[in-house]
Structure formats: structure tokens, C-alpha cells
Amino acid sequence: MNKEQHTFPYIQRLLNGAEVEWKTLGEISTQISGMTGVSNKWANNGNCRFIDYLNAYKHIKIDIHHLPFATVKKLNQTELRQGDILFTSASETPDECAISSVIEDKISNGIFLDDHLFGIRINEEYKHIIDSTFLNYYFHSPDFRKIVNKAVRGVTRFYISKVAFMRLSIPIPPLTVQNRIVDILDKFTKLEAELEMELEAELDCRKRQYEYYRNQLLSFEMLNGGGKTLNNITIKTLEEITEIKRGRRLVRSELNKKGCYAVFQNSMTPLGFYNKSNVCGDTTFIISAGAAGEIGYSSIDFWAADDIYYFIPSTNICSKYIYYFLMTKQSVIKGQVRRASVPRLAKNAFIKMQIPVPSLTEQQRIVSILDKFDTLINSISEGLPKEIELRRKQYEFYRNALLSFNHTSKNESASAV
Predict the structure, then answer these.
(1) How distant, in Å, are the alpha carbons of 215, 252, 307, 315 from that of 262?
(2) For residue 378, what pLDDT is reported?
(3) Helix, coil or strand: residue 159
(4) Same topology between domain 6-173+406-415 and domain 234-357
(5) Alpha-carbon distance 6 to 15, whole Å?
(6) 360-378 and 175-217 are packed helices; what angle lies between their axes, rounded to 10 degrees?
(7) 6-173+406-415 has which CATH code?
(8) Which of 38, 49, 101, 161 has its CA 20 to 30 A from that of 12?
(9) Which CATH architecture has domain 234-357?
(10) pTM of the full predicted structure?
(11) What is the DSSP string of 204-221?
């Protein structure tokens, strides 16, 4: 066994001179594969239950209380147990490979693993010296994630070699130290979750308040000064007050992880970055595939791919006024999405949508009011979202300080395989 040569202050105090041993995952555990011969996943019933990808990806501890059904041809497969640690095997980004979650609760027989996951089970001879929850926390540490990312392979879809994964080394401090770290991190996790729930509840209330005021400000009655006949506004269709254009496709090889201009394709999250833009800032757009029906606005130049329709407003029309009005019709627009393997929204589903158009001055006044609400609620640098992010970073700082073991030479060589 290898002795730990360099540790960080928090760990030094907990160790109090005790040694840290290192073992490969292949030495201390056995790999668990996902179920085979699967049909009717997510049905109302089946001959087994299983732990699905999102359960493992979203929860640091598996939720065993709401497991979906599936049907498998053979039931004599590996059944999951308390203490098993599960991992995502592939994803569209390297950072989402080998994200771990642990089964802490007692689990009934006949629970299998999704075929998009794999897992490890600590061998009997190591169960008395390794706490699986400690190990799961360590798998989320920056030190381990850095090594995992080096072992990830792929171009458009990424995966981790399970052989290389089992060659990675993990620290084994004394069990009392592991238990102490778990106790601290469990309390931090619970506290952080409670604080986030409180902040997110407050954020949800603010959003509801914002949506109410937005819908009132943009209602026909309000815009028309309370009258039922057209006094202060005109009614126009979307295609009458804007030029509706479709973006142009880029292939993944043309994209960069960083760059001057975000590329929007089928999500509000940029697909990547490109060295050119094809849409100017202050533009409203709609996604037509994937997250079809989602409405976006960009204050800066960007690249619209072919699943994006964007709007160039005519004279005396404020682009962001269009955005805010379309947001009041979000549910109507999404109701026009054609559900298929890839959800799609046809251009004809929204171009005839009627919009009340007040004077440009009134449009700008409404936009100014709604911008203030929007900043409070949605900005990553202001308001409650910033507070939520600060809480997460605080939790991550303490977690990482407790799990910072310096031992990378073996892992670096293993990840190169």
C-alpha cells in the first residue's frame, strides 16, 4: 500500500498523523453492469424495477422510492444492493461521464440497473475499511473528476472505458476519518438543500408575481386603456410586424468550447461557440426542434442554427416587446409542438399569432418595467439566483477541502490507457 505524502490542511487535521492508503477500484470493488434483454421501459408495470439514468445523474444519493418498471427476458441478472455506487457511462459532454450516486437505503430484491449506467460493489474483504458514501463523495471531488475527464473518449458523444476506470486509484483513510468526513458532508448537503429549497421557493414566488404583472401589462385591456374597442393600439400578426428568418446549420467540427459568439440550435444552452455571428443583438427567437416552443432573447450578437427562427422587427416595433408578449403565449405556442422522437414546431404555428401593438413609447415603458423584474429573477449576477449559486459554491468549497488528497501519478498513467 502507498502512503499519502501530501495532504491539505483540513485533511491533515482530521488524519492527525494517520496514513492514507491507495488502491485501484479494480482491487477494492467489482463492476456491475446494466440490465440486458430489456423491453417496455417506463411502462405502468413489468417484471422488475430499475434505477434510471436521471436518478443517478441528478441525485448524489439514489432515490429508491419512485422506481420505474421494465420487463427483462431473464431475471437472473445482478440485483442492486445497499452500498452499491452507480455511474453514468456516456453523455453528450465529457463532464457528465461517470457522475456517481450511492444506494444508502436498504433495497428490495429484483431492482436492476439501467443499461445506460454501470456500477461498482465494494468487495467483502474491504467493506470493513471503506465507507461507500465516503467513496461516493470522493468521486464528486475536483481531484477525481480531473482524472476521470482524462479517461473519457469520444467526439460527438463521450464515454468512459470501464477497463481504464477500474484502474483509477482512490484514497483509503482510516474508517473513523471517512465516517467523520461523511458526517460533515451529509450535514452540509442537508443544509445546502434546505437553503436552496427556501431560496427556490422565494424565487418561484417572485416568478409567479412577475408573470402576473407581465401578463397584466401586456393584456388587451391594459394596453387599450380599459376600453373594449381599439383606442390606443392596433392588432397585427407576427408576420406583419417582423421579418421571420431561419438560422443556418453548422456542423460540430466548426464549433469551439469558447469563442466570440454563442451558437443556439435546439436548446437555450449554447451548442458551442463560433467565430462569426449571423444575428445581431437585441433579437427575439423561437426554437423549432428539440426544446421546441422555447422563446429566447439575446442582447448580443449570436449564431442562429437551422432550428432557430428569429424576428427582425419593422419600424416602431421594439424587439424585446415582442419577446415579452410571446412569453405570455408560451403555453399556446408549446401546444402547437408536434410530439415525435424530436419535438418540432412549424413556422405556420406562430406566424399568424395576433399581437396588440401600442405606441413605441409605450412598448419601451413596458419593457423597462419587465426588465427590472427579469433582472431580479433570472440574472446570474443579480438577485436570488446569485444567492443560490453562492450557496452551492460555499458547499463545494468545504466538500473539496475535505476530499483533497494529492496522489495523481498512478491515476494519470491509468487514464492514458
Answers:
(1) 30, 13, 14, 27
(2) 66
(3) strand
(4) yes
(5) 12
(6) 170
(7) 3.90.220.20
(8) 101
(9) Alpha-Beta Complex (3.90)
(10) 0.62
(11) HHHHHHHHHHHHHHTSHH
